[in-house]
Please model this.
Amino acid sequence: MLSDAGRLTPAHRRILLLAWGGWLFDFYDLILYSFLLTEITRELGLSREQHSLILGLSLGMTALGGVLCGILADRFGRRPVLQLTILTYSVGTLMCGFAQGLPGLLFWRSVTGLGVGGEWGSGHALIAETFPPSKRGHYGALMQSGAPLGVGLAAVMGSVFAPAFGWRATFIVSGIPAVLMALVRRGLPESDLWEGQRQRDGAIGWGRVCSLLLGRDIRGTALRALVLAIFNMSAYWFTYVWFPGYLQQERGMSVVKSGMWVLVIVAGELVGYASFGAVSDRIGRRPAFTLYSFFMAGGLALITIFWDRIGASTPLLLSSMAILGVGTGTWSNFGPFFSELFPTAVRNAAMGAALNLARGVQFFTPLIITRVAQAGYGLSGGISLACLFSLLAGLWIWTLPETLGRDLQSLEDAKPREQGRTVP
Model:
């Protein structure tokens, strides 16, 4: 089995590269709209509330995509679903470039969200099931590093390409690379752990998946995992969904300057995502997660609540943004950690449901921020709510067991040991 290999093989490298590339374009397509708000408003005259509806609906549709694609991947395999997801979100992004108003943007951003929701769980399940347990956190973090690069690419396209060529061309061009990635993915190896489970137990039907997820052995863990994802997801999207608009509308930055400042956060994210895996493989999933969560809360507080106090110091502001970026490295925990909580028969469904139902809850995030801003607290007031969610996530993870070094095969053979103890 690939997971038993003493060192990385060409198959491992191909899996990592293609899963990483799919996640990069997945997150890029999801976040791109936030960087095109000014350009879209100029042509279509959409209000802040209408933009919030579009942003919220695309996040909400990721919940449906995550659950649906997770069940499909547990039944038909990781590889075919990864092909389906990348084609779906690519088509959604490309077609946004032809939308003539609010209805078109709502529909095609919904399609994008549907595909985006299915990508994460299938990619991380494939890596978790094929890489050695001792390095699972490290390589899961490397795959997750596609997310900050996706944000960085969106910032560049939104601040440089879109002003020159228009938001429609930006959407159209953005849909092409992922389609090419789908063609390359045809040679992606399938998970041998999933194939072994399929040969042993046969195809897992929809009813069986639901009964396992709702059964006594898994239900409690799944619910706690969902709450953790909701807290961390809320911290992230309360920060980012209106962040470019916050810098432009309340801090007086140009589109180009705001994009450049976001790249400082992206640089911090690259450090956070890349380092988290090694840290968690050394000190454990839970303590590493708490440490990085507190980094995010601190950096975010400085650039919202305390902006007026430190605003005269550009180096301090930029350092705070970098610290915020490092803190988002918590997302490198979710793939390895969630994969170590659930058996193969429902791993993809459980991971996809937990993460994307949490993302679906974020339908309300843009609307809440807008209402807080209208109440006189500004976008900074709405965004600062992310501090609370980040702190809650850092504390809540201790309700789940430590899984560092867990052999995934042990989840097939026996019920995990007492919560809170490392399972070898």
In short: The domain at 10-413 is CATH 1.20.1250.20 (Growth Hormone; Chain: A;).
